TrEMBL record:
SUPFAM superfamilies: Restriction endonuclease-like. This is Type II restriction enzyme NaeI domain-containing protein. It comes from Pseudoalteromonas rubra. Keywords: Endonuclease, Hydrolase, Nuclease. One of its GO terms (molecular function) is DNA binding. It comes from the Bacteria. GO terms for biological process: DNA restriction-modification system. Gene3D superfamilies: DNA mismatch repair MutH/Restriction endonuclease, type II, Winged helix-like DNA-binding domain superfamily/Winged helix DNA-binding domain. Residues 43-279 form the Type II restriction enzyme NaeI domain.
């Protein structure tokens, strides 16, 4: 455990010694690692993928959470839980969403500013996830949902929110995380049409990479723009986006290729995985 994290935990436990049972769950995530990425990149990717799957741009022509139906917004939390559990290789709890070691843990996700806590999660450990798509921002923390951290009022489903004072008891794993960007959210209609209107998948992808040079572009977005199952074929040579862009002095690098990934790391990119593509200038 690094010194910065260790000092943060010491300060937290000094202020909230009764929350010691959070530590094993905290350590599970803090020490989690794979060959590709760090915790912020992993959780940011989980949230981005969940949001994109519910927005479902290729089939619905929507780009924003604001365009979703109320029932779809509710489903975001379920999708986040499923992807989160699968990514970290966790099993379901007997009572709550997850089992981490021997601890039952619930997952609470919000696209707003607070979390709603059901009665069955009171006095239990909860994972708190918050995403703000318009600001490309997310948070990831832990809390024990004791009565003292919850507001007294309940909604129609009997759920309560975390109070202003209660938020001081959140044990943060990622407090100011960078959510991978929703590239189409802030584009003008004309810019969207420029990328998406051409009939050929290779041309659409070339337009995407050309506009968003030197940025990590996720597999899901590439698949959405290609609108074809074999989207990699639309990137490769032999008439793919790479050939189109090569004539302009641009190269598409893929995190799943060892040489490409090394080039990206040398250029200063971090958190690059097999899910990522980057368009860079040859000069």
């Amino acid at each position: 455990m690094n010194l910065k994290r260790n000092s943060y935990l010491e300060a937290y436990l000094k202020a909230h010694p009764e929350n010691e049972r959070l530590i094993s769950v905290f350590n599970f995530f803090a020490e989690y690692s794979d060959s590709d990425s760090d915790l912020e990149a992993i959780v940011g990717g989980i949230l981005r993928n969940a949001l994109d799957e519910v927005i479902d741009m290729p089939r619905t022509n929507r780009y924003s959470i604001d365009e979703l139906e109320k029932t779809e917004k509710t489903y975001i939390g379920t999708k986040v839980e499923i992807v989160f559990r699968d990514t970290f290789g966790l099993g379901k709890g007997r009572k709550l969403d997850l089992l981490i070691g021997e601890k039952e843990v619930d997952v609470k996700n919000t696209i707003g500013s607070n979390w709603t806590i059901p009665s069955e999660a009171v006095d239990e450990i909860c994972i708190l996830l918050l995403s703000n798509d318009s600001k490309s921002f997310f948070q990831f923390g832990l809390i024990i949902c004791r009565d003292r951290v919850l507001n007294k009022g309940k909604n129609r489903d009997g759920k309560r929110t975390i109070s202003k004072e209660g938020k001081n008891e959140i044990l943060w794993l990622v407090k100011d995380g960078q959510l991978p960007r929703n590239f189409f959210l802030h584009l003008s209609d004309s810019a969207r049409r420029e990328i998406l209107e051409p009939r050929g998948g290779s041309t659409r992808l070339a337009n995407l990479f050309r506009r968003f040079q030197n940025e990590l572009i996720g597999r899901r977005l590439v698949e959405c723009v290609a609108q074809q199952k074999d989207y990699m074929k639309r990137i490769r040579g032999n008439g793919g986006a790479r050939d189109i862009l090569a004539l302009e002095g641009l190269t598409v690098l893929w995190g799943g290729n060892r040489e490409d990934k090394a080039k990206l790391e040398n250029l200063g990119f971090t958190g690059v995985t097999t899910e990522h593509f980057v368009c860079v200038s040859d000069s």
